[in-house]
Amino acid sequence: MRSLQEQLRTAWERAVEETVTPVIRRLTNKVDTKGLPKLTAITLEDCDAMRAAYSRCSQLLHSSSEALNVPLPAPGVIEAEITALSSWMANIRDRQAKILLAA
After folding, report:
1. What are the pLDDT digits (tens) for 66-79?
2. Residues whose CB is less than 8 angstroms from the CB of residue 46 and which lie 6 or more positions away in sequence, other chains included
């Protein structure tokens, strides 16, 4: 379960990286200004949704005291998080593609 939760949080990090990759790439010194229009597809709501999901994933990942006896998340909770990530990325990719078509 811990591995799955770590992978889910890492997937959110990679999703964020993918959304800004048209301009900034991790571990490079180059800024590609031609990709800047694709960043305009990202809204404050997207940022809020990502931060909320990342926070939920972090809460699932960090263990609590055994005295609290916190149960493992139900499969439906994990499935909902995966669906949220998939939907978030699909929505942003779609909007970024439309911006490229309009350009």
Report:
1. 656 667 788 998 99
2. 19, 88, 91, 92
